Amino acid sequence: MAFQPSLWAALPWAAPFLAFVRLARQRPNLADAPLASGRLVSVIVPARNEEANLPILLDSLLQSVYDPVEILIVDDRSTDDTAAVVRSYAERDGRVRLIEGTDLPEGWFGKPWACVQGYREAKGDLLLFTDADTRHAPELLGRAVGALESEGRDLVTAMGRMICGSFWERVIMPIITALLAIRFHPTVVNRARRASEVIANGQFILVSRESYEAVGTHEAVKHEVAEDLAMAQLYFRAGRPQLFAFALKLMGTRMYSSLSGLVEGWSKNVYVGGRRSFPDEPIQRALIPVMFALGAIFWLVPPTVLALSLAGVTPAWLEPALLATGLGALFWVLFDAGFGINPLYGLSYPLGVLMTGWIFARSTRRGERKIEWRGRTYSSS
What we know:
Layout: H1 19-23, E1 41-47, H2 54-61, E2 69-75, H3 82-92, E3 96-100, H4 110-121, E4 126-130, E5 134-136, H5 140-151, E6 155-159, E7 161-162, H6 167-183, H7 186-189, E8 204-208, H8 209-214, H9 227-237, E9 242-246, E10 251-253, H10 259-276, H11 282-286, H12 288-310, H13 318-338, H14 349-366, E11 371-373, E12 376-378
């Protein structure tokens, strides 16, 4: 009698749906925080070759209902018209200032250096570090300050919505976002007992000046690629209370607009950041490449077996492979729909996993020896 695989073989691909129990809990939410005002906030934006993003960001920041605020754009030795864009806004609104960054010192990565230069020029009692590719709703800053004050926190960071405009963004970004959202859900981060359970989103980090100086400023993480993750761990070790909150209706970010940008950006981050996320767990750090590989294999096995079955190579596995592939497709359809992406892109998940796996492999191969970003090449080894 020929071997007949049971449909029970597809059961493991139902397990990811349990993640929706966690993902559905979108609390705490900055939209629920009180709307504050009164303390000067210095908004610090590191900007290297951001001429395309800055008008969108500045238009949104200048519509903020929060008052008072100053907006410091640190031009990190850009080779495009970043400085000219900022000057044009500064001429129209005195809240905007251009900080012309100096050359990168030895031992520093670009973003921490830009952040420190902004901090040195800032006048505010509160400091907001935000990225040039973000978009802020008018109430975002006021709600974040309200959360910081009402919750008694020294750091408030937020998870905004993904903005995806191209095919590859819609195929790849959900895969990576799912990994981060499940690994570092706010409900876990806010009750963290270990440094490996905390994270900050570098797209939006609001801190009190006093706490920022107490932990050593960005100078303490000057050599870090994932400086936001390292900063959160720094606050945790110092016993400084943090809040990680949802802000899906208040903030959006379009991280990358092309496949080359996706590859360069995530190749820079995923391996080094993955290792940094386990600061006190050497075994987990060493197993990061294995974790990446097993995750990709998990999602790619069903469609691969299905293709082989349809080709007549493994006909006995057709039904379980079809069911497992269908479960995988349903998971990603629902995930995309929940994060505001056309759910039909969920059907392309094998391609997304394949491309993400290649990015992870590229990042792992380079490790800390060769980190490239915005025309700079670093090595932290």
